Amino acid sequence: MLLLAGVFLASGTAKLRDPAGMVVLLRQAVSPTVPAFALTRALAVVEVALGLVLLSGVASRPAAVLSGAVLVVFTVALRVAARRAPEAAASCSCFGGSGGAPAGRAAARNALLLVAAAVVAVRAPGAPWDLAADELAGAACVAVGLPCAWLLAAALASVGGGAAGATGGTAGR
């Protein structure tokens, strides 16, 4: 639950602070006349609201179900955007200025988050402060550790891809 809350809070806050990448993506992948700035702001507000509801534990099950639905929509939209406007999709700033994972990695990330949403929807824990100290510490470690592991894997993948490109890809011949 903390992981989902953290992801939605970070993503929504990043879009509120730096909407430019998402605005460009919407205009290139959907239509140049789409009200991209307003849609980006609305999406950011929804993400922040979902994060806050998940964090509060007040309506964990409905928030987790809605989070799962949002993740499915995001994944489908990103795949469509990657076909229509690959450059914009690659730099969508979905998590702010630092944000654009390739569509395949973003889909894998969203699939993992969808599993987390399903677990929360089925288990529906209460508020994080209702947990025992050791459970809360474990949940916080997972919530912080998984995004760090994801960023490390993404960095290693880009370094590995860059090394193959630098050698001309002859290492496997």
Automatic annotation (TrEMBL):
<keyword id="KW-0812">Transmembrane</keyword>
<feature type="domain" description="Methylamine utilisation protein MauE">
    <location>
        <begin position="2"/>
        <end position="121"/>
    </location>
</feature>
<dbReference type="GO" id="GO:0016020">
    <property type="term" value="C:membrane"/>
</dbReference>
<feature type="transmembrane region" description="Helical">
    <location>
        <begin position="63"/>
        <end position="82"/>
    </location>
</feature>
<keyword id="KW-0472">Membrane</keyword>
<dbReference type="Pfam" id="PF07291">
    <property type="entry name" value="MauE"/>
</dbReference>
<dbReference type="InterPro" id="IPR009908">
    <property type="entry name" value="Methylamine_util_MauE"/>
</dbReference>
<dbReference type="GO" id="GO:0030416">
    <property type="term" value="P:methylamine metabolic process"/>
</dbReference>
<feature type="transmembrane region" description="Helical">
    <location>
        <begin position="38"/>
        <end position="56"/>
    </location>
</feature>
<protein>
    <submittedName>
        <fullName>Unannotated protein</fullName>
    </submittedName>
</protein>
<keyword id="KW-1133">Transmembrane helix</keyword>
